[in-house]
Design goal:
Length: 311
C-alpha cells in the first residue's frame, strides 16, 4: 500500500503539489491524470524520491520513505518513462539486467530473468537479447523499458506517460501487455497520463489533478458518472461520457436471449464496441459469440439505457 499524507512540493515559493492525500491499494493500478503542469509527474516522482517533498509524508507498506536511502528505494521500485530511457550502448539483455546486477544477483539468475521477461513481452530472447536499442521499433523499445522496470520483481511500478510516443495500434497493444503483466505479478502500478481514455481503460482508480490539487480519486465508473468538479467533467468530455461508461463493461455481462441477425460480436468485446457496431450497421440487435458458438444477443435498446445520463 502507498499512503500519500498531506504532501506538498514548492519551488521558490511556487506550489506545484498542494497538500495531496491519496491511498493506493496494493496490487491495483492507480492512474494519475491531468493537464500539463497539474503536478501529476511531480507527485509520482516523490514516491521514489526523485523529487523530495517540501512537507508531508509518503509511506510504503507502513514505512515512511523519508528513512530509506534513495538508491535503496529506487532498486525496490520499477520506473518506466516515455521514450523508454534505454541505455543506447547496452544490449537489450544488459538493459533488462541493470537492477538485478546492481542487487548482486548471480549470472544464471539474471539470464533466466531476462529471458523470462522478454518472452512475456513476446520478444524472442534468442532474437532480441543481443540487439541494441536502435535496432528495435518504438513499440519494442517500450516493451524492453517496462521489462527492465520489472526485472527485480518490484512490488511497485511507476510509469510516467509511458505510451505517449507510440502510435495508436502499438499503444493499444502495450496497454494490454501492461494489464496482463500486472495481473500475473500483482504489481501495484502508478501511471501518469494526460489521456483520460487511457486512464479509464487501465485504472482501477483514477486520481484527477489540476493546479497541484487532487480534485477527485475514485473508480472509473464513479468519475464518469459523478465528476466532482467542472474541471473533472471537462476532462472526461460531456459528449464522451456515455461511451466511456460503456467501455467499462463487457458484452458477456449483458447477453439477452434471442438471435440477432448478421455478423456476431465476441462476448469479450466492450459494450462501447457493440454500441458502435449497432449504430453503424443499423441493426437493433447483435448476435453474441463465445468460444465459436452464438449464445444470445445484445440489443440497442439495452445499451441505450445503460448509456443514458445518470439522474
Amino acid at each position: 500500500m502507498i499512503e500519500i499524507d498531506d504532501i506538498t512540493k514548492s519551488y521558490s515559493g511556487t506550489v506545484v503539489v498542494d497538500h495531496v492525500n491519496l491511498t493506493i491499494e496494493p496490487r491495483s493500478i492507480c492512474v494519475v491524470v491531468g493537464t500539463s503542469g497539474s503536478g501529476k509527474t511531480t507527485l509520482m516522482r516523490m514516491i521514489n524520491k526523485l523529487v523530495e517533498p517540501t512537507s508531508g509524508h509518503i509511506r510504503i507498506d507502513g514505512e515512511d520513505i523519508a528513512g530509506i536511502p534513495a538508491y535503496e528505494l529506487r532498486r525496490r521500485i520499477g520506473y518506466a518513462i516515455q521514450g523508454h530511457g534505454l541505455f543506447p550502448h547496452r544490449t537489450v539483455g544488459q538493459n533488462v539486467a541493470t537492477v538485478p546486477k546492481l542487487l548482486g544477483w548471480d549470472k544464471k539468475k539474471i539470464a533466466d530473468r531476462v529471458d523470462e521477461l522478454l518472452s512475456l513481452f513476446q520478444l524472442d530472447p534468442a532474437e532480441f537479447r543481443d540487439r541494441l536499442p536502435h535496432e528495435l521499433s518504438g513499440g519494442q523499445q517500450q516493451r524492453v523499458g517496462v521489462a527492465r522496470a520489472l526485472a527485480a520483481s518490484p512490488n511497485i511500478l511507476l510509469m510516467d506517460e509511458p505510451y505517449g510516443a507510440l502510435d495508436p495500434v502499438i499503444r493499444a497493444k502495450a496497454q494490454e501487455d501492461l494489464l496482463s503483466i500486472q495481473r500475473k505479478f500483482g504489481t501495484t502500478v502508478v501511471l501518469v497520463t494526460h489521456d483520460m481514455e487511457e486512464a479509464i481503460h487501465l485504472g482501477d482508480t483514477i486520481a484527477v489533478m489540476d493546479k497541484g490539487k487532487l480534485l477527485q480519486c475514485a473508480k472509473p465508473a464513479e468519475i464518469i458518472a459523478n465528476p466532482a468538479t467542472p474541471f473533472v467533467a471537462e476532462l472526461i468530455g460531456t459528449s464522451e461520457r456515455p461511451f466511456r461508461l460503456l467501455s467499462l463493461a463487457k458484452v458477456a455481462d449483458h447477453i439477452e436471449a434471442g438471435e440477432g441477425a448478421g455478423e456476431p460480436i465476441e462476448a469479450g468485446a466492450s459494450l462501447r464496441d457493440a454500441y458502435a457496431e449497432l449504430l453503424w450497421s443499423g441493426r437493433p440487435a447483435l448476435p453474441v459469440r463465445r468460444d465459436g458458438q452464438v449464445v444470445g444477443q445484445v440489443t440497442l435498446d439495452a445499451l441505450s439505457r445503460l448509456a443514458a445520463r445518470p439522474q
